[in-house]
Every structure is written in C-alpha cells, then in structure tokens.
Amino acid sequence: MIMELRTDDGLRLNYQVVGYGQSLIFIHGFGGYQQVWTRQVEYFTSRGYQVVTYDQRNHGSSQFDPNLDSIHRLSRDLQELLALSTINYPILIGHSMGASVIYDFLTRYPNYPLAGVVAVDQSPRLINSPSWPYGFMKVTRANYQQGLLAPGVSETLHGIDQHVYDQLRVVKQQFPFDRAANRELVTDVARQDFRPTLATTKVPTLLVTANQSPFYQSAYATVAKDNPMVHHVSIDQSGHVVMAEQVAVFNQVVSQFLHQL
C-alpha cells in the first residue's frame, strides 16, 4: 500500500508498507529510489516481515525541499516515519547515504528502541586522511565537494538484477534526480564522522560491504572491531549496489542476521 507522510515542516514523503510482522525499514542512498529494494520487498514479505520503503525528500516521488542542506533533516524524517502506529521495534536497513542516515539516527536518537541495524557499503567517515584511508574513493578535504558529486566510475560490477532495473527505469524517467540541487546535502554528509557511533552503539548492527565496491574499502568496518554489537560481512562479486547485484546472497546474509536478533 502506497501512502503519504506529512513531515513536521510540511513536506510530503511517499512510502509503501507491504506485509505484516516485524518491521523492516529500507532506506535508499543519494540519488536513489525506494524501488531499488524491490527484490527485498518480495523476499522478506514472503517470510513474514512487514517491509517499509520510502523516497527520502528530494528523491523519487517525494516532495522537493530547496532548503535541504543537512543529513539531520533526513534522520528526523526517518524518526517521524517510525512514529507511525504500525511500526514497532523496527530494524533499519540502509544503503550508501541511507546507511549514513542510520548512523546519524543512532547518534541523535541513541535510546530509540530499535531491534537492529543493517548498513550497506557506506563508510562512517567519507573524507580520507593519513590516519583514515577508508573514506570515499580518494576524496579529501581539498576535493570532496566535486569528488562526491562526480565520482566518474560505474557503481556496479556487472549491472543489477533485471527486474530491479526495469522498476528503476520507470521512476528515473518520471522523477529525475537533480544532483546539482543537492550539492549542500551531500557536502553535509561528507562532513560527518560517525566512527564514534559505530564504536559505541548498543544496537545490534551488521555492516555489509562489497569486495568490488568502487567507492569503499571493506576495512572501514574495523572501526567497530572492539564493539561486540557490530558484525561485518563482505559480499564478493559485487559493486556498490549490493542488494540489487547479488540479490540472493544479500538476502540470505540479512536473513541470517535477523534470525540472530
């Protein structure tokens, strides 16, 4: 069922709820669409979960906010979505910037009752430095604004699942994403440092990385190596869009994590 959420600042966000049971909230990345989770909606609803997907503001069928310049607004939107009466003790699953939204949510709402978190191919710190070589590509303080908007590489290793591709093709034509208009947002995401959050979170967390990601080294997961609540799985033969490149493997990895909660 496709529904509409009005945020506390009056914007319209489109979201979809499918199935019944434990709530899984899927969050797409920068320039993404909720349809990227098509195969996860099918898989997890067939296994007794309630699946919630949504287009973040400035994305897909949700309303455009010309003043969006902070990831904090996106985590606030997530908090408002979670306040819906049908969602209780949810598990958050985010890809790329969607994972950063989760990191920010954990930082800003550390006591929110979450059952678990899955963060897909997103370093907690995007800007590289001599002591942190695990950020986004070769982005540094000197070049991050341009580097994030135009990375100049293919996100995937061998493309994505055909069914997901077909779904995305339709919404991309209908709701084209304006990267230039969201420069301030991606710049703010890059400024964040969520390493302390991952190192200390008490929420069961799974970091899913991709062995052939064009953007990140899997070693960023070592930031939480001393936190027993954080686990790491790296998926082979996949670029950045893991859930749509290695659908079966990704779904199995997430399912195993959920069964351990």
Automatic annotation (TrEMBL):
The keyword Hydrolase applies. GO terms for molecular function: hydrolase activity. Its EC number is 3.-.-.-. Residues 24-250 form the AB hydrolase-1 domain. It holds the Pfam family Abhydrolase_6. Keywords: Hydrolase. The keyword Oxidoreductase does not apply. It is an enzyme of class 3 (hydrolase). InterPro entries: AB_hydrolase_1, AB_hydrolase_fold, Carboxylesterase_BioH. SUPFAM superfamilies: alpha/beta-Hydrolases. This is AB hydrolase superfamily protein YdjP. It comes from Limosilactobacillus fermentum (Lactobacillus fermentum).
